[in-house]
Write a structure and sequence with these properties.
The chain is of the alpha+beta class. It has helices spanning 2-48, 52-56, 60-65, 68-82; strands spanning 85-95, 107-117, 120-131, 134-143. The N and C termini lie far apart (77 Å).
């Protein structure tokens, strides 16, 4: 009787391990792709004050609260006040993807990026949502004191 249960137990353990491994790999991939998207979009936008990349990858929800022209004005204002991007010194954050597969779950990501524009160092908050195989921006905040004066 014990001998017959062993293959079933081993099979179940293998299945659980496979599910967790797939979930861990998926989370790693989503974390990496969201981090890469954040860095690429910020580099493009803050180096040249071009909002095209941000607008092209803007989530509809963000565009409702901040239309494309407002995004362009915001970036131009920051660029005029601070100057071009000099460096990105660190990035922290991750996606909300779980270790267990949940096909219907919304996956968001949130990052804080330390940047230097001109001679001003500050944090930038970037929020993203994964839809239809791509990351879309749901929020961008440049936390530079010079922009709040």
């Amino acid at each position: 009787m014990r001998v017959r249960k062993l293959p079933v137990i081993v099979g179940l353990l293998f299945l659980v391990l496979a599910v967790f491994s797939w979930g861990a790999l998926r989370k790693y991939q989503l974390d990496e792709s969201s981090r890469e998207t954040t860095v690429q979009l910020l580099e493009q936008a803050l180096s040249s004050s071009s909002a095209d990349g941000l607008v092209n990858q803007a989530h509809a929800q963000w565009l409702q609260s901040m239309p494309a022209e407002s995004i362009r004005s915001y970036l131009n204002f920051a660029f005029d006040r601070l100057g071009p991007l000099q460096a990105m010194t660190s990035i922290t954050g991750e996606s909300t993807a779980g270790m267990l597969p949940d096909p219907g779950a919304t996956v968001d990501a949130s990052y804080t990026v330390n940047v230097v524009m001109g001679d001003v160092a500050f944090d930038t908050q970037v929020d993203l949502r994964h839809e239809n195989g791509q990351w879309l921006i749901t929020n961008l905040v440049l936390n530079a004191p010079a922009l709040m004066e």
